[in-house]
């Protein structure tokens, strides 16, 4: 590695740091991880993530992996899936999981909150039309329960139905019998999860990231 | 119910009259108890204590005293032998006094709103002590350390440990430990050291107080007391985080207190503590704390394992919980380990497994017994504190006492502020200044400090009485001044209060979703953080431990399903409570139904349309009703509150509801096959008395009672009639698997319902409608558990199947 290379990466890191609010150390650590995951290629593909053994036990692994390749999370304004992502996009996805800084203004807090919730929303809204329909929600619940042994499909259906009904009732209020509630929009989603304190729960501690802990998993 | 009606009634004079009557009763009791209580001041010696009332004790036995000359006296038809029953009688009187006091306070809601209950109880204790003294008796040393540590304290701690909210506790464990260990150490040394320095000042006449006794005193008085914290914090409804921080600290500092106490007590005689001793002290601390937790965990697992086999002897299930926990406490105390930590560990460890194994009724029993005992214990402790204050002996020293009080406050504030400064560097949710203030201000001292001081040997510590006086004054100061003012301060500072919102199913789904998501992200980052380990622990738990400790198939049920069933149960209860029927009253705003959210389906074939549509819409209406109650905002308590324990009359209604629901599901499946329209009137909800009467006799009898009560419109579920042969088939075909998860949810539902109801004032749901107990449903393992607990009598009848 010549000095030009390291100078270039430093400059890149600086740039990335400003854009994604990670610190330089965190970015360099994540870069190493990225290289590990992608086998030193420039881009990360789905197979790279899917082969992580740690993720096997996770009931929603597919959705998590999809989230990395979902264009909406990568800062593009379009809908769709990409096949590969570069390091910057990797960082952008991970930036959703930063903890909120103290001293940020109320507005910034709200913005961060919305970003995180938007990420969650996108994970559920698989067809990208901006609405979580009953089927999508059912799918989500089913995934959630998928590793938990044999589950009655009836129960899954009932749970998803109940959840949907709840959202509909709290957001739409009284509905005529022949009105149809298409699904949960983003505003409804926000309302629904008001009490969850997303800013504090949805974060990963990037502080302690160091190479010793990293497992390649290949 | 009546109580609340009275207290809220506009006729204030009536409640006043009641209160006056009660006071009169109490006073009479007091008069009656003064003599015997006073006579109990020397419990071990049987020598009469100068009280006139003891002559009759020997009356009965005095007859045969003179064996030489047998004089035939007329046969005593009526006699008094007080001495025979003296001790239990006095104990019972004390307990009765405590309970009546508790009752009395809640008759005057305004008073209990201003003054925390603990203060009132101490005042009562002072009064009782005063009465006894006035009567010329010696006040009994009621707050005997043995009594306190072995009898009065364990129920409170077990109650706290069993119902400890695990999630916030483990999330904040680091903070709690730092406050508990380092905070208490700092307090002890600061107070002890500065006190010693003050004592050395000329003119204070306290120079005989050595350093070590001072340090000992510091360690006794520095510990935050769980009983006092519980008593006061329960009433201020502060947010969960602060509650668990202060409360957790008060629990975990026991280990530190134990070690410091023993260390200084041991070496106060020797007069010096070397570095070696200090090092040993540290080792001792580790052993005490970890050992205590280990002992508790072992007993916890034993209890869980035992509960796995209790399916045939449901009646004694609660006993295992209590006995194992108490033995854990005693075993830990035996080895000088931290009994409190053992008890907490035992309760927290055994709870998830035991709850999965035991029957619904046992769970209720455990819950109510724990609350009852801890409530009575707490009341007694505060009363005894008052009595012990009157008893003395006291050695008042202005300097010592005032310096103690000031130092306690100062050291607490300094400790909290500096520790928070350090802790905030590692926390995501920082502790604000307001939080710090509450934590500092909420550091109440209580009876543990007093008992520890009481234990001191008078020979080694000639200034023991002075210490005791100072301790009592400090306790009074914290409980009265801090306890009374903390509530208005909380309001003034607008500290975040407990969240009242109900936990919805969406939140539950997303909480779990987030857990998995964050674990996944951590895995992708290659970072083994909190979520990763938590996930691993959960999986380990599920795979190995649960299999071992939970009977039957129940260990496989995922949390979300349990939660969902809990919610369904709650809905059913709300439905019954609000008297909902198919004709939805205006009180239930019906907002969204299944039809609104389901995408349009193909209409069924014309020939079958009449039948399926009807039943399906019926079913959906019922579902509507059930689910519409989800939107009713109810009060939800996140941390538990002992004072407003509400009788839950609906706990047994689960069976009935489940049965109906299963029938509905079954019916939906079979509707294409059945050609005849099946109806059955639902068994009506009855008044409680009627229900109890029925249960006492024959559970099958109530099925024949068809007339619905007028006050409550019943759920007319159109299902198979019991007499028709079809119905029996229906029941037989109820799928077992679907019912699997419901057993667990029964008592969880009751628990949740309980949690929610606690915030309500004495039962405002005063209708007391009870869905009658389901007689039996052998196919459902969950119900089986509910019903296989026969209760103390009439076992056979309740186990008979619901349908003939």
TrEMBL record, chain A:
SMART domains: EFh (SM00054). Coiled coil: none annotated. Keywords: Calcium, Cell membrane, Cell projection, Cytoplasm, Differentiation, Lipoprotein, Membrane, Metal-binding, Myristate, Nucleus, Protein kinase inhibitor. Residues 112-147 form the EF-hand domain. Its main location: other. One of its GO terms (molecular function) is protein kinase inhibitor activity. It is found in: Cell projection, Lamellipodium; Cell projection, Ruffle membrane; Cytoplasm; Membrane. It comes from the Eukaryota. One of its GO terms (cellular component) is lamellipodium. It is a lipid-anchor. SUPFAM superfamilies: EF-hand (SSF47473). The keyword Cell membrane applies. InterPro entries: CHP3, EF-hand-dom_pair, EF_Hand_1_Ca_BS, EF_hand_dom. GO terms for biological process: cell differentiation. Gene3D superfamilies: EF-hand (1.10.238.10). PROSITE patterns: EF_HAND_1, EF_HAND_2. PANTHER family: CALCINEURIN B HOMOLOGOUS PROTEIN 3. Belongs to the calcineurin regulatory subunit family. CHP subfamily. This is Calcineurin B homologous protein 3.
UniProtKB/TrEMBL annotation, chain B:
One of its GO terms (cellular component) is basolateral plasma membrane. Residues 750-759 have a biased composition (Basic and acidic residues). It is found in: Basolateral cell membrane. GO terms for molecular function: antiporter activity; calmodulin binding. Residues 736-804 are annotated as: Disordered. InterPro entries: Cation/H_exchanger_CPA1, Cation/H_exchanger_TM, NaH_exchanger, NHE-1-like, NHE_CaM-bd. It catalyses: Na(+)(in) + H(+)(out) = Na(+)(out) + H(+)(in); Li(+)(out) + H(+)(in) = Li(+)(in) + H(+)(out); Li(+)(in) + Na(+)(out) = Li(+)(out) + Na(+)(in). The chain crosses the membrane at residues 21-39, 115-135, 147-164, 176-198, 210-232, 244-264, 279-303, 337-354, 375-392, 398-424, 436-455, 467-490. Residues 96-490 form the Cation/H+ exchanger transmembrane domain. The keyword Phosphoprotein applies. This is Sodium/hydrogen exchanger. It comes from Umbra pygmaea.
């Amino acid at each position: 590695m010549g000095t030009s290379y390291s100078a270039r990466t430093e400059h890149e890191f600086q740039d990335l740091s400003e854009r994604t609010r990670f610190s330089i150390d965190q970015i360099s650590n994540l870069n190493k991880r990225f290289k590990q995951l992608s086998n030193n290629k420039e881009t990360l593909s789905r197979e790279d993530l899917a082969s992580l053994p740690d993720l096997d036990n996770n009931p929603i692994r597919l959705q998590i992996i999809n989230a990395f390749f979902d264009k909406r999370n990568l800062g593009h304004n379009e809908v769709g899936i990409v096949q590969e992502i570069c390091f910057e996009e990797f960082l952008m996805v991970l930036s959703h999981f930063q903890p909120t800084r103290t001293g940020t203004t109320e507005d910034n807090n709200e913005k961060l909150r919305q970003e995180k919730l938007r990420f969650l929303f996108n994970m559920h809204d698989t067809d990208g039309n901006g609405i979580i329909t009953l089927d999508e929600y059912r799918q989500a619940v089913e995934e959630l329960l998928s590793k938990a042994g044999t589950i009655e499909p009836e129960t899954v259906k009932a749970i998803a139905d109940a959840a949907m009904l709840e959202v509909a009732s709290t957001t739409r209020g009284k509905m005529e019998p022949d009105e149809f509630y298409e699904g949960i929009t983003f505003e409804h989603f926000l309302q629904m999860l008001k009490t969850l304190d997303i800013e504090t729960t949805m974060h990963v501690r990037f502080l302690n990231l160091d190479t010793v802990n990293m497992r390649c998993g290949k | 119910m009546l109580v609340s009606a009275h207290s809220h009634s506009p006729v204030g004079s009536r409640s006043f009259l009641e209160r006056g009557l009660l006071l009169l009763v109490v006073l009479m009791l007091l008069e009656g108890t003064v003599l015997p209580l006073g006579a109990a001041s020397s419990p071990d010696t049987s020598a009469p204590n100068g009280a006139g009332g003891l002559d009759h004790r020997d009356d009965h036995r005095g007859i045969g005293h003179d064996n030489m000359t047998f004089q035939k006296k007329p046969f005593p038809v009526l006699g008094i032998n007080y001495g025979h029953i003296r001790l239990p009688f006095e104990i019972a009187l004390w307990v009765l006094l405590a309970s009546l006091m508790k009752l009395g306070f809640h008759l005057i809601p305004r008073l209990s709103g201003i003054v925390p209950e603990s203060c009132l109880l101490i005042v009562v204790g002072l009064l009782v002590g005063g009465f006894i003294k006035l009567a010329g008796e010696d006040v009994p040393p009621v707050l005997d350390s043995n009594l306190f540590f072995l009898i009065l304290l364990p129920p409170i701690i077990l109650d706290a440990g069993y119902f400890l909210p695990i999630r916030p506790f483990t999330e904040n464990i680091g903070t709690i430990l730092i406050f508990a260990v380092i905070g208490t150490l700092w307090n002890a040394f600061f107070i002890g050291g500065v006190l010693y320095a003050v004592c050395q000042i000329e003119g204070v006449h306290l120079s005989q107080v050595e350093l070590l006794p001072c340090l000992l005193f510091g360690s006794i008085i520095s510990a935050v007391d769980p009983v006092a914290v519980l008593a006061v914090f329960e009433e201020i409804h502060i947010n969960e985080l602060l509650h668990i921080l202060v409360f957790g600290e008060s629990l975990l500092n026991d280990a530190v207190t134990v070690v410091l106490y023993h260390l200084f007590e041991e070496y106060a005689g020797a007069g010096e503590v070397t570095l070696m001793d200090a090092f040993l002290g540290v080792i001792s601390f580790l052993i005490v704390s970890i050992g205590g937790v280990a002992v508790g965990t072992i007993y916890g697992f034993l209890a869980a394992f035992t509960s796995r086999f209790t399916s045939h002897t449901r009646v004694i299930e609660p006993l295992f919980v209590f006995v194992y926990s108490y033995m854990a406490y005693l075993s830990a105390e035996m080895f000088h380990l931290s009994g409190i930590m053992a008890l907490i560990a035992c309760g927290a460890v055994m709870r998830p497994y035991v709850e999965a194994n035991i029957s619904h009724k046992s769970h209720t029993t455990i819950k109510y017994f724990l609350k009852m005992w801890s409530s009575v214990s707490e009341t007694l402790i505060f009363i005894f504190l008052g009595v012990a204050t009157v008893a003395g002996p006291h050695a008042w020293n202005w300097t010592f006492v005032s310096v103690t009080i000031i130092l306690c406050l100062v050291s607490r504030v300094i400790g909290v502020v500096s520790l928070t400064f350090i802790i905030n560097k590692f926390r995501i949710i920082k502790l604000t200044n307001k939080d710090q203030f509450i934590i500092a201000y909420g550091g109440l001292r209580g009876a543990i400090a007093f008992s520890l001081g009481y234990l001191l040997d008078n020979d080694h510590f000639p200034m023991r009485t002075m210490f005791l006086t100072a301790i009592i004054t400090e306790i009074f100061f914290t409980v009265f001044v801090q306890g009374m003012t903390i509530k208005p301060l909380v309001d003034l500072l607008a500290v975040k209060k407990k969240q009242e919102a109900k936990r919805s199913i969406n939140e539950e789904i997303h909480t779990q979703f987030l857990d998995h998501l964050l674990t996944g992200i951590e895995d992708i980052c290659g970072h083994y953080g909190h979520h990763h380990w938590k996930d691993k622990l959960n999986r380990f738990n599920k795979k190995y431990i649960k299999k071992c400790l939970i009977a039957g198939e129940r260990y496989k049920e995922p949390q979300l399903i349990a939660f969902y069933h809990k919610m369904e149960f709650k809905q059913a209860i709300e439905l019954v409570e609000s008297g909902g029927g198919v004709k939805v009253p205006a009180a239930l705003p019906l907002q969204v139904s299944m039809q609104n959210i389901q995408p349009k389906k193909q209409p069924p074939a014309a020939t079958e349309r009449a039948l399926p549509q009807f039943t399906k819409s019926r079913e959906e209406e019922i579902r509507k009703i059930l689910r519409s109650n989800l939107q009713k905002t109810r009060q939800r308590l996140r941390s538990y509150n002992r004072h407003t324990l509400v009788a839950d009359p609906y706990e047994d209604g689960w069976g009935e509801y489940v049965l109906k629901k299963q029938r509905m599901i079954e019916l939906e499946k079979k509707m294409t096959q059945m050609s005849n329209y099946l109806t059955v009137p639902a068994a009506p909800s009855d008044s409680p008395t009627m229900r109890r009467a029925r249960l006492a006799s024959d559970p099958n009898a109530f099925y024949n009672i068809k007339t619905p009560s007028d006050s409550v419109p019943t759920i007319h579920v159109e299902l198979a009639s019991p007499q028709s042969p079809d119905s029996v088939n229906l029941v037989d075909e109820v799928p077992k698997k679907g019912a699997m998860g419901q057993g667990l949810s029964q008592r969880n539902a009751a628990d949740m319902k309980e949690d929610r109801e606690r915030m309500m004032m004495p039962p405002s749901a005063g209708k007391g409608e009870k869905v009658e107990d389901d007689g039996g449903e052998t196919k459902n393992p969950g119900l089986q558990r509910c019903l296989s607990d026969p209760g103390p009598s009439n076992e056979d009848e309740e186990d008979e199947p619901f349908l003939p």
